[in-house]
Specification:
Layout lengths: L4 H7 L1 H10 L6 H10 L33 H4 L2 H7 L4 H24 L1 H4 L5 H5 L9 H16 L12 H11 L2 H7 L1 E3 L8 H8 L5 E3 L10 H14 L6 E4 L1 E3 L2 E2 L2 H4 L5 H7 L2 H17 L4 E2 L13 H4 L8 H16 L5 E2 L1 E4 L20 H8 L1 H8 L5 E4 L17 H11 L5 E4 L5 H4 L4 H11 L4 E2 L4 H16 L5 H17 L10
Parallel strand pairs: 1-2, 1-11, 2-3, 3-6, 6-7, 8-9, 9-10
Antiparallel strand pairs: 4-5
Helix pairs in contact: 1-6, 2-5, 10-25, 16-18, 18-20, 23-24
Length: about 525
C-alpha cells in the first residue's frame, strides 16, 4: 500500500533540514539553537512511513518567528528562512506547501519508475495514480505461491487436518480480485494456428479461464503445430491454470481426425449395444486429448434422437433413440473418459435437441414438448447420471421451451438452469452456455446482454468471445450488473468455486503437499 502524501513528504524532509542549518543567519541563531535542542526523531516501525514529530514551543528573540509547534516538514524550511530573511509567515507556508509537493512528485516518480512516469499519463500518473481493479499475472502467481507455501509448511507442533479440495478452493477464491474471477468465467476462442497477440491479451490482461480449440478456426493443422500451440497456451497462462476445451465426439464432429485418425460416432457406438466398447472409446479419447494438454471434452451428447429431421439425427451424433440406451452408453463413455482424471467430460445439449428441427447455429429452435415428456425423454439421461455422481459439467443450448419458459432462450433462462438443473435435479457442478456467438442468441442480444442474462440464469462459464474487445464487453456488462445489484457478488464467487473445483478434478489444480 502506498503511503499517504503528507507522510511521503515527511520522509524527505531531513535532507532539506540539514541544508537549512548551513544557511541559518545570525538573526535566527537563538531560534535554531532552541529547535535543535528540542528536535527528537522517532522512526516508525512501519516500513512504508517514517514519521518524525517535533514539539517546539517557546518564545524566541528573532523578529519574524512567533512560535514553533510544527512537524518535520515545517522545519525543513529553515534554509529558505535563512536566505529569505524577512519572509512573512504566510509566504513561508506557501513555500512549505511547494516543497511538500515537490517531495511527493520525486517520491512517486521513484516508486513508479521511468516507463510510467514518462508514459501516456506522464505527471498525471504521479499525482493521480490509477486505482484500477485489474490484477497482473505476477499477482496471480503470488496468490497461489503464497497459499501453497503456507499449506505445505504448516507448524509441526500443531496437528493439522488435511486440506480438502473445497477448503483449498475457498482459500484461492478469497484471494482473487473481481477481474480474476470474471476472467475464470470466460471461455474464449481465436482464429489461427499460432499463438496470436489477441489470444495473448485475453490470457494475460483478462486472465480468461478456458480456451476453446476449433478446427474450423484453423487451430488444428498437424501434431507438431497443435502440441506447440497448446504448450504455449499453458506456459503463457497465469498461475491460475487455463483449461483447454474441444468438441471430440467422433464421427462428423471429430476435431482430431487429421491428427489421430477417425473415431467412431456416438450412433455407431450406441448401435454396438456394448458398454465396454463405449467405455474403451472414452478411454481412447482421453488418451488422445491428454497428449495435447486438453483437459475438457465437450462431449458426450446425451440428446435422445426422436426426430429424423434433427441435425443430430442426420449427423449421427446421438447414442440412441431411447433414454435408457442413451443413459447406459453415455455413462460408459464418461467413465472411460474421466478414468485417468486428466480429462473431464461435458453432457450436452440441455434441455435437449433430440426433437429440434432448427440448428441453434442458424436460428432459435422451439421444443414443443410438455414438461412430463421432457422429464421422461430428454432429461432422463441427465437425471440418471447426475444421481450417480459422474457429472462435472453440463452445456446448455439455445432454444425456446414453452412448457418451462416461453420468453427466454434456454441458455438465458433461470427457470431452466436454476429451476430445473440446480433445484430439481440437484446438479452442483459447472454449467456452461453453448457459444453465445450463435445466431440463436446474436439475433436478439448483444454480447454483454447475453453474458449478464446467462449468469443471472445460473451459468458459470460464458462461451464464445473471440477477441479482447468481446471479452471486455462481456466483463463490463457483468460489472455494471454487479454495481446495480442485479447480480450479487456471492453469485460470482459460487461460479468461480465450481470452476476451480472442476480444474482440480481434471488435475490442473492439485492440492499443495498432496501426493
Amino acid at each position: 500500500m502506498e503511503p499517504d502524501a503528507p507522510l511521503a513528504a515527511q520522509k524527505h524532509s531531513s535532507s532539506a533540514d540539514q541544508s537549512g542549518e548551513l544557511a541559518e543567519t545570525t538573526q535566527l541563531a537563538d531560534a535554531q539553537s532552541h529547535i535543535e535542542a528540542t528536535h527528537t526523531s522517532h522512526p516508525s516501525t512501519d516500513t512504508s512511513q517514517q514519521h518524525t514529530t517535533i514539539d517546539a514551543e517557546k518564545d524566541v528573540n528573532s523578529a519574524n518567528i512567533d512560535e514553533y509547534n510544527t512537524s518535520q516538514s515545517s522545519i525543513s524550511l529553515h534554509g529558505l528562512v535563512g536566505t529569505a530573511g524577512r519572509l512573512k509567515h504566510s509566504d513561508r507556508l506557501k513555500i512549505a506547501g511547494i516543497m511538500c509537493l515537490l517531495a511527493l512528485l520525486v517520491w512517486r516518480a521513484t516508486d513508479l519508475g521511468q516507463p510510467q512516469f514518462i508514459g501516456a499519463q506522464g505527471w498525471a500518473s504521479v499525482l493521480y495514480p490509477s486505482e484500477t481493479t485489474s490484477t497482473t499475472a505476477q499477482d496471480s502467481r503470488d496468490i497461489l505461491t503464497g497459499l501453497n507455501h503456507r499449506a505445505i509448511h504448516q507448524p509441526h507442533a500443531t496437528a493439522q487436518a488435511p486440506l480438502t479440495p473445497e477448503a483449498y478452493i475457498d482459500l484461492i477464491t478469497s484471494k482473487l480480485s473481481l477481474d480474476q474471477k470474471l476472467g475464470q468465467m470466460m471461455m474464449v476462442q481465436f482464429v489461427g494456428a499460432n499463438y496470436s497477440q489477441q489470444l495473448s491479451t485475453m490470457l494475460s490482461q483478462y486472465q480468461v479461464g478456458s480456451v476453446l480449440l476449433f478446427s474450423a478456426n484453423g487451430n488444428i493443422i498437424d501434431k507438431n503445430q497443435f502440441k506447440s500451440l497448446t504448450q504455449e497456451i499453458h506456459s503463457s497462462a497465469t498461475d491460475l491454470p487455463v483449461s483447454m476445451a474441444i468438441d471430440q465426439e467422433g464421427g462428423t464432429v471429430d476435431r482430431l481426425q487429421q491428427l489421430d485418425g477417425p473415431r467412431p460416432s456416438a450412433a455407431t457406438l450406441g448401435a454396438s449395444n456394448n458398454p465396454q466398447t463405449v467405455h474403451a472409446a472414452g478411454q481412447q479419447d482421453a488418451q488422445d486429448l491428454a497428449s495435447y494438454g486438453i483437459t475438457l471434452n465437450l462431449a458426450p451428447v446425451v440428446d435422445v434422437d426422436s426426430s429424423n429431421y434433427s441435425e443430430l439425427h442426420q449427423d449421427m451424433r446421438t447414442f440412441g433413440t431411447t433414454p435408457q440406451v442413451v443413459s447406459r452408453m453415455a455413462e460408459a463413455y464418461l467413465e472411460g473418459l474421466q478414468q485417468s482424471h486428466q480429462v473431464v467430460g461435458t453432457l450436452k445439449h440441455f434441455p435437449g435437441l433430440g426433437d429440434a428441427t432448427v440448428d441453434p447455429h442458424v436460428g432459435l429452435p422451439s421444443i414443443q414438448r410438455s414438461k412430463s415428456e421432457l422429464e421422461t425423454i430428454d432429461w432422463a439421461p441427465y437425471r440418471t447420471m447426475i444421481q450417480r455422481g459422474q457429472v462435472h459439467a453440463i452445456m446448455v443450448t439455445h432454444e425456446i421451451v414453452p412448457a418451462i419458459d416461453p420468453s427466454q432462450p434456454s441458455s438465458l433462462s433461470s427457470k431452466l438452469i436454476t429451476g430445473i438443473l440446480r433445484d430439481e435435479m440437484g446438479f452442483q457442478g459447472v454449467i456452461m452456455t453453448d457459444s453465445l456467438t450463435m445466431a440463436g442468441i446474436t439475433a436478439y442480444y448483444t454480447p454483454d446482454q447475453a453474458a449478464v442474462l446467462a449468469i443471472e440464469a445460473g451459468s458459470d462459464i460464458i462461451m464464445g468471445a473471440s477477441s479482447p474487445n468481446d471479452v471486455a464487453q462481456m466483463i463490463n456488462g457483468i460489472k455494471q450488473a454487479l454495481n446495480k445489484g442485479e447480480i450479487p457478488q456471492s453469485r460470482i464467487d459460487a461460479s468461480v468455486r465450481r470452476i476451480l473445483l472442476m480444474k482440480y478434478q481434471m488435475g490442473l489444480l492439485p492440492i499443495p503437499g498432496s501426493k
